[in-house]
Specification:
The chain is mainly α and about 230 residues long. It is about 60% helix and about 0% strand. Helix 2 crosses helix 8, helix 6 packs antiparallel against helix 7 and helix 8 packs antiparallel against helix 9. The termini are far apart. Bound molecules: fe (ii) ion. Fe (ii) ion binds next to loops.
């Protein structure tokens, strides 16, 4: 049979037909549902280890997505950003409670072990199809813009942009949140510290983007601490 014997395809038949499109849509929905289930399951795991306040991680995801959109991240990067913001500390399930809950400063040996949590998180999430990129973003969420962070000592643009975003919003949230052993910082003091470390620890572009809307987002944070942004200013 020569090529001349092959009947010509009718116009438009190279694109998927309606049943194919329906099947593709179903598969996309299944993939999305599975992805959400995995995120929920890991969040439950963080809850079991008492490492997660639902509000905290949801807040980080919302702030992160806002910064990500402003910086022009593509849709797939935004999806990875959401996962990384929600699950950046998943590796802490592998850190002993005696270290996680120690109110005093950690000694060098304990701190070295604590720093392993970003690698632990990567090691777990990279096993899941579709989460490989978010796993890498989690691996680098404690890199410092000047190269003095961990685990790889990456610098500037070498650090994945998602990791740079998570780093800033996580640090800020940690500063303003109260813990059983310490009270959260007032808003203006947290802003001062963020600006002070902008360009050294933090990506200045991310800091600028976050601070452009941060104050308007603070009410629930300070309400949870029994105070208000204005009273804390
Ligand atoms: Fe962390």
């Amino acid at each position: 049979m020569s090529n001349n014997d092959i009947p010509a395809l009718p116009a438009g038949s190279s694109s998927p037909g309606a049943p194919d499109l329906l099947r593709i849509k179903q598969l996309e929905e299944q993939t999305s549902a599975l992805r959400n289930s995995v995120i929920c399951a890991f969040n439950q795991l963080l809850d079991l280890k008492d490492l997660n306040t639902g509000v905290h991680s949801t807040r980080l995801a919302e702030w992160g997505m806002r910064v990500g959109r402003e910086l022009g991240l593509e849709e797939t990067e935004l999806q990875n950003l959401e996962v990384a913001a929600l699950l950046h500390d998943i590796g802490k399930v592998g850190i002993p409670d005696s270290i996680l809950r120690k109110p005093e400063h950690l000694d060098p040996e304990e701190y070295a072990l604590m720093k392993k949590h970003s690698e632990y998180g990567w090691a777990v999430l990279r096993m899941l199809p579709g989460f490989e990129r978010a796993a890498l973003d989690i691996l680098h969420h404690h890199e410092s813009f000047d190269g003095k962070g961990y685990p790889a000592g990456l610098q500037g643009a070498e650090i994945p942009v998602v990791s740079r975003i998570v780093c800033v919003i996580d640090a800020f949230d940690a500063m303003v949140s109260s813990r059983p052993y310490r009270k959260g910082l007032p808003y203006q003091e947290a802003v001062r510290r963020l600006n002070e470390a902008s360009g050294s620890q933090f990506d200045p572009v991310v800091v600028k983007s976050f601070l452009s809307f941060a104050e308007s987002e603070m009410s629930p944070v300070f309400a949870a601490a029994g105070t208000s942004v204005s009273s804390a200013l």
